[in-house]
Amino acid sequence: xxxxxxxxxxxxxxxxxxxxxxxxxxxxxxxxxxxxxxxxxxxxxxxxxxxxxxxxxxxxxxxxxxxxxxxxxxxxxxxxxxxxxxxxxxxxxxxxxxxxxxxxxxxxxxxxxxxxxxxxxxxxxxxxxxxxxxxxxxxxxxxxxxxxxxxxxxxxxxxxxxxxxxxxxxxxxxxxxxxxxxxxxxxxxxxxxxxxxxxxxxxxxxxxxxxxxxxxxxxxxxxxxxxxxxxxxxxxxxxxxxxxxxxxxxxxxxxxxxxxxxxxxxxxxxxxxxxxxxxxxxxxxxxxxxxxxxxxxxxxxxxxxxxxxxxxxxxxxxxxxxxxxxxxxxxxxxxxxxxxxxxxxxxxxxxxxxxxxxxxxxxxxxxxxxxxxxxxxxxxxxxxxxxxxxxxxxxxxxxxxxxxxxxxxxxxxxxxxxxxxxxxxxxxxxxxxxxxxxxxxxxxxxxxxxxxxxxxxxxxxxxxxxxxxxxxxxxxxxxxxxxxxxxxxxxxxxxxxxxxxxxxxxxxxxxxxxxxxxxxxxxxxxxxxxxxxxxxxxxxxxxxxxxxxxxxxxxxxxxxxxxxxxxxxxxxxxxxxxxxxxxxxxxxxxxxxxxxxxxxxxxxxxxxxxxxxxxxxxxxxxxxxxxxxxxxxxxxxxxxxxxxxxxxxxxxxxxxxxxxx
Length: 661
Fold this sequence. Notes:
The protein is α+β, with helices and mostly antiparallel strands. Residues about 1-60, about 95-100 and about 480-495 have low confidence and may be disordered.
């Protein structure tokens, strides 16, 4: 080794000796005292304290260490991108030696800005949740009447000889000849001028045979029994069923006609089991029909079935709808929307019914004071007794954005910024209520006005893990410093694990179900192709095709627990598709594609596909603000739907999802 190399090696191996500043000052003072013994200068307490502060400042000035939340082995001296996954690095803040709690973290303002951490206040606000349903218009069964034959006889004449003929109350329907009626009228006429008691009994017999008081008066006027008797309509409406034929003999009580009044109709809807918490008696429902484009109809919920349909896992709803203009006709298919407003207790309610009285038999009867129903005479009851309002309602519910909590199967954790100028965050386990659109109701754990992290919470959680503190993924603390997507044993984090890192149990499904699921997957890939090509219209057209394929899924192709799982997944697939179709922004469409892809990846792996070809599971670590995102595509050439032409080939194919054979 040359002399120059030896010098370099020696210099490299030499380690500078770092003495505390306050010790250096003390040594200097002692030396000065030795040089000038008469002055006897000794450092004061103020000087020592200043020296200690200087030591802390020097420690704070030490170079920062930047690491990757996905790859904690990466340690770099300055901010940049992870050389493994290209994610933004985060600053590794040294443990403050007890200055923060076991689930707390202090960061510099620069680190917070680079990590793109933002907060929003916990607030009370009026939130609503939209429940989408499909159904059909049906007859209002309370507005229907059966016209029977009050006595046995022969139909001699028909006045209404076809269905769907409009009739008014009192209109002629048929004429019946009856020997029994003829004998009863004769007995009445004979008893009329004799025994009053027998005459009253004979009159009563005629009434029981359906003879009206007007007809009895006409009988008395004519003075002779009729050979034929007219049967009249008892309500206004349309003839929806006809059983009368000329010359036909009918039995007593046999139905001749059915008449339906369409001034009021029912809307029969099916809601998913998961929507049950949002449904209340008396809620307003809006809907539209193909026959009247651009027109919105409405009604109120008059029945929520107490029985769940086992095969479809749906709840039946009935909506009372006014139809005085006759636009709605039984059999029409409708798309309905119910907007449920939440009270501060997290219960769905209709504030318009607060303090009102309603009739359980006639939900259209809504009044402000107690009394009797004008239609049935039953006592009205408070709307709160039917669950239409919340008796505990005092204020709007406490809510946070849906992006704030980190949710596992058992826990929900948020990060709260504590008061003070220096960024100081605390992890806190909370109890969530229902989700309402872009908001979660908070039942426990937060106070109004506190600041919660709504963006970057996972980065905070990852840094807590790196420092061995308590975090959402490591609730016991003392982490190994590595990132563990699995979290607690048996409690995988659905919020943070990528779909390609998760595994699902295969559920039984028949060939028809798997074939249609293959068609659904092909339609979904059309969305991926459209987004990758920066073509919003093509993506939306493919989203419509995906909904059409979803509607054709055979529900009888899965049973038991598999059917329950499919019903949950189907709803989660449908919602982002509908949002994607409604938006006019490419960024929004790509945001909706993210949850759609997660659910589709789970669905095809749970049930298997047939007829679609080999699907490729791809992953991009930079999508979703560097959180990473998956998608399905055909072929091995990456076509990134989250960036399009900006970074079309960013990502990699993780594995192939083979078809069922």
